[in-house]
């Protein structure tokens, strides 16, 4: 059975699309700023101990959404760059981006949790009297809040993926992150040290280090030699043209990236499609046949990715 994440044009009611949290990226930036895990956790608004930060960075746990703006501020990073998200904002994302828990947002309305919980889950819309209060608390216009409410109820504009909104990755670091995120489902992605080792072995000289790779991935450095670019393509098993420069990738490379993203959405054991999102309609036999056909056409583009049947 082919297992695929179905990309829909609208978000089903009550389905929250959270920001992406990459603990290894947080760790690299924190270390670059010479902060300990305890110091990051103690920053205003983060409010956790060092062990909790350690679990975030290792992927054992994830912070609550309302803490992400505080973490980004503590690391002096733009929220959208450090913790990107797909598609238009819904009500829960607006609240979290304002750094507010449900209890704190409820206090703004002076009522129970029910109105906010119902609106965020797509069960009942906010009363008109609440719209202005929450818009002010979230730091957005009433129009933006109502648009987010539409998204929470599955009636928003067609959701654009982050790749569609920001075109495709340009820098070497962005391309590394893209491939690591989407190209290794079911496999363990190489570490920064392994990538550096593969680059050096391919070039025959020690041209980069694990710290250099980490710095590339967080955007601390962007200047990359041609030999390192070629080595990165070798290390990540893609065509050398993908890392040729920092310009927008051409049609062939874009097709490869789309193949990577598509195959990266395959998860063994479940279909993250309409049924998993509460629709219960599942995927038709015709849709499954089409998915199988597309996978068969694309899977050869990623060496080492085995087809599933």
3D structure, described in words:
The chain contains 17 helices and no strands. By secondary structure, the chain is mostly helical. The protein has three domains: 23-82, 434 Repressor (Amino-terminal Domain) (Orthogonal Bundle); 91-152, 434 Repressor (Amino-terminal Domain); 165-301, 434 Repressor (Amino-terminal Domain). The longest helix has 14 residues, at 251-264. It is elongated and about 65 Å long. Keywords: DNA-binding. Residues 26-82, 91-145 form the HTH cro/C1-type domain.
Note poorly predicted spans: 1-17, 158-166, 266-284, 298-309
Structural class: mainly alpha
Q: Give the number of domains.
A: 3
CATH topology of the largest domain: 434 Repressor (Amino-terminal Domain)
| Large-scale geometry | elongated
The average pLDDT is 76
Total helices: the number is: 17
Main sheet summary: none
Between the first and last Cα atoms, what is the distance in angstroms? 5 Å
State the CATH class of the largest domain: Mainly Alpha
Strand fraction equals under 5%
SSE succession? HHHHHHHHHHHHHHHHH
Assign the CATH architecture of the largest domain: Orthogonal Bundle
**Assigned CATH superfamily of the largest domain:** lambda repressor-like DNA-binding domains
DSSP strand count: 0
Which percent range fits the helix content?
Answer: 40-55%
Rg (C-alpha, Å): 21 Å
């Amino acid at each position: 059975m082919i297992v695929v994440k179905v990309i829909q044009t609208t978000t089903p009611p009550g389905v929250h699309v959270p920001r992406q949290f990459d603990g290894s990226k947080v760790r690299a930036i924190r270390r670059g700023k010479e902060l300990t895990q305890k110091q990051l956790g103690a920053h205003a608004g983060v409010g956790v101990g060092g062990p909790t930060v350690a679990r975030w960075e290792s992927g054992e746990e994830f912070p609550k959404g309302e803490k992400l703006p505080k973490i980004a501020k503590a690391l002096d990073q733009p929220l959208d760059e450090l913790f990107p998200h797909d598609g238009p904002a819904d009500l829960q994302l607006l609240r979290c981006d304002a750094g507010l828990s449900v209890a704190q947002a409820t206090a703004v309305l002076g009522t129970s949790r029910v109105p906010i919980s119902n609106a965020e889950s797509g069960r009942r819309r906010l009363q008109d009297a609440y719209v202005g209060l929450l818009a002010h608390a979230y730091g957005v216009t009433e129009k933006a809040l109502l648009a987010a409410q539409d998204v929470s109820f599955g009636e928003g504009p067609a959701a654009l993926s982050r790749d569609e909104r920001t075109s495709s990755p340009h820098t070497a670091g962005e391309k590394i992150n893209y491939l690591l995120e989407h190209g290794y489902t079911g496999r363990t992605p190489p570490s920064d040290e392994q990538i550096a080792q593969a680059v050096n072995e391919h070039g025959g000289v020690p041209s980069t280090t694990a710290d250099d790779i980490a710095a590339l991935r967080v955007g601390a450095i962007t200047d990359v030699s041609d030999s390192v670019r070629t080595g990165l393509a070798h290390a990540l098993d893609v065509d050398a043209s993908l890392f040729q420069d920092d310009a927008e990738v051409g049609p062939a490379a874009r097709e490869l990236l789309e193949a990577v993203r598509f195959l990266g959405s395959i998860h063994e054991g479940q279909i993250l499609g309409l049924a998993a999102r509460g629709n219960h309609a599942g995927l038709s036999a015709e849709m499954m046949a089409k998915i199988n056909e597309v996978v068969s056409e694309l899977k050869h583009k990623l060496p080492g990715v085995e087809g599933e049947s």
